[in-house]
Amino acid sequence: MEQLPISTPHCRVERDGHVVVVTMDRPEAKNALSTDMLVGLADAWAYVSDEPEVRVAVLTGANGTFCAGADLKAMGRPSSDPRVAERAAQIPDYHWKGLLRDSGALPTKPVVCAVEGHAVAGGTELLIGTDLRVVAESAVLGLFEARRALFPMGGSAVRLPRQIPYAFAMDILLTGRAVTAQEALAMGLVNRVVPDGTALESALEAAAQIAACGPLAVQAILRACRQTEGLPEPEALKVSDAIGWPVIGSEDAKEGSLAFREKRPPVYRGR
């Protein structure tokens, strides 16, 4: 994979064709969040949205750990890297953008999460901001903030009850307990539980499946899901139709039908 220049000391951003892999890379601190990491994440999500040939992103952590949450000292300390320090000053609310909390700056393409080891506190909040979630069987999830008299500022107090049943969300949020991969799967919090050491491989397989689909269709489906959340069905269908009809009339849609008739793989160009 090609490492992109937007990478930072704690966030490695690589690209392979239509897929961008974002690796939280601070293993000495269990990939706890830092200024260098959050700036790298914020720039990575902007790149994924802005680069036309990118169709999907994969988020993972280095050395068998996803993310142990916030390192308050490191997040409050300016980066020693001049370029990262400059970007931190240039990006409004880079921490919320990096954490996938800023609704106005979410990636316009899907993000697949690959979790090994611990994904706790801010790590689980990051997972909640992604679209597909692959976790290793011994992975540990959890929102520990209440145990430490803190609040989950990454948005989980709002997002989690919208993603999984209320009782499950309250169990996670109010007890601050650790949640196993199998529990998370049963709650509907994650998509797949895979053998240890294979989460990234499985996530890349899912990313390849997404990348093989029509990019306009994938991005429109994602946008419709986000924009209709909480709307009454008649109003939501109007929004969905407005997003969907241009896709139906696109060149990619014609190519999809033609490729099906000709029994060959489609070649989508995003138009």
TrEMBL record:
<dbReference type="InterPro" id="IPR014748">
    <property type="entry name" value="Enoyl-CoA_hydra_C"/>
</dbReference>
<comment type="similarity">
    <text>Belongs to the enoyl-CoA hydratase/isomerase family.</text>
</comment>
<dbReference type="InterPro" id="IPR029045">
    <property type="entry name" value="ClpP/crotonase-like_dom_sf"/>
</dbReference>
<dbReference type="Pfam" id="PF00378">
    <property type="entry name" value="ECH_1"/>
</dbReference>
<protein>
    <submittedName>
        <fullName>Enoyl-CoA hydratase</fullName>
    </submittedName>
</protein>
<dbReference type="GO" id="GO:0003824">
    <property type="term" value="F:catalytic activity"/>
</dbReference>
<dbReference type="InterPro" id="IPR001753">
    <property type="entry name" value="Enoyl-CoA_hydra/iso"/>
</dbReference>
